[in-house]
Design brief:
Blueprint lengths: L1 E2 L3 E6 L13 E2 L3 H8 L24 E8 L6 E2 L7 E6 L4 E3 L1 H11 L6 E6 L4 E5 L12 H8 L19 H22 L10 E7 L1 H9 L4 H24 L4 E8 L5 E3 L16 H5 L9 H27 L8 H6 L7
Parallel strand pairs: 3-6, 4-10, 4-11, 7-12, 8-10
Antiparallel strand pairs: 1-5, 2-6, 2-11, 8-9
């Protein structure tokens, strides 16, 4: 499946998440609502798009991975895809796609269960990695200088892929390689903490790749470096999709948004969670005044106790009613035993 600029591509979706191939163009402002609908959560009232069929009430994907690639002016990603993959044209109607709306929906439903939410973006010097589990990613390099040290190691991205003309000593190449390496680091950390994958709360990854645009802007669209960067990016995204599918047992939706340079941005308005936890010591439920969490068996016990009380109440009423209207001379064994006649000789 070829993905060019201004497109929304679903690389993989579970069989119970169905899209319509005849759907109209997707507005960039509708992307957060679409992702919320995929989770089975309520989108905004203004969301109107016929591309997503009514999701299953009993099954929802465990995770959603949104990858945004900038700098795709006239370029094409030859991405592998499953039989459930779809591609839609994306219309730019807002400058920033705010994925915080997706995060808010997840937190409102599963916030006290601490869902795995990862938001990745980078500029020329600092990598901004946000997560609801900051302790998991404390060892992940937060600057491009530290990331260059990681790329020099034997187990890094540079030894797993053919970089071609790309060079880690060049700043423009370094940004793309650092972003891809950081995504790989995130995958490695999550793979080592599978309890986060198997819990009951959904996971959300928003991964922004702007390094490709930096390579194109510096070397030119027809340069050898741009071609090698496109080839590397294509191969990496294909392998990343397979890793997420294997990690979540296919219960994951993987989407790629391809945009031209200096186009729509993906962002969240929140503080960085790579820092230490809030010193106040308050949990998310305490800060947001959420109701206490109920056990998953609560509804079972509630129904057992409720109907048992109803049955006992009806039985007690029936017994009392029958005793009140009882004929002592005919129905009561107590009266029969105490009113026997004296025998006569």
């Amino acid at each position: 499946m070829a993905a060019s600029s201004h497109e929304f591509t679903v690389l993989h979706a579970p069989s119970f998440v169905k899209f319509s191939k005849s759907a109209p163009h997707l507005q960039s402002s509708s992307v957060p609502d679409l992702i919320s609908s995929i989770y089975g959560l309520s989108p905004s009232k203004s969301f109107r798009w016929s591309g997503l069929q009514v999701p299953s009430l009993f099954r929802r994907p465990k995770a959603n991975v949104l990858v945004t690639v900038l700098g795709m002016d006239g370029k094409t990603l030859n991405l592998q895809h499953s039989k459930d993959a779809f591609q839609f044209n994306l219309d730019k109607d807002i400058p920033v796609i705010d994925t915080q709306r997706v995060v808010n929906n997840i937190e409102s439903e599963f916030g006290d269960k601490t869902p795995l939410i990862v938001d990745l973006s980078a500029d020329r010097t600092v990598v901004d990695l946000r997560s609801h589990h900051p302790e998991l990613f404390h060892s992940v390099p937060a600057t491009l200088t530290k990331m260059s040290e990681v790329l020099s190691e034997g187990s890094s991205l540079t030894n797993s892929y053919n970089l071609g003309s790309l060079n880690i000593t060049q700043d423009k190449d370094m940004l793309l390689l650092a972003e891809l390496q950081l995504i790989q680091e995130i995958l490695d950390v999550v793979s080592l903490n599978k309890h986060l994958v198997t819990d009951s709360s959904p996971d959300f990854y928003s991964l922004s790749i702007s390094g490709f645009q930096a390579v194109v802007d510096h070397y030119g669209e027809q340069s050898e470096q741009a071609r090698d960067a496109l080839k590397l990016l294509t191969e990496f995204l294909n392998k990343m999709t397979e890793t997420f599918r294997r990690l979540y047992s296919d219960s994951v939706v993987v989407e790629v948004i391809t945009l031209p340079g200096s186009s729509v941005n993906i962002g969240r308005k929140s503080r960085s969670l790579m820092a230490e936890a809030d010193n106040s010591g308050e949990t998310f439920a305490q800060r947001t005044n959420l109701a206490p969490e109920y056990d998953e068996n609560y509804s079972v016990f509630f129904n057992i106790i409720l109907w048992m009380m109803i049955v006992l109440a009806l039985a007690t009423y029936a017994i009392c009613y029958s005793m009140w209207h009882m004929d002592p001379g005919r129905d009561s064994i107590i009266y029969r035993m105490t009113s026997q006649r004296m025998k006569k000789e």
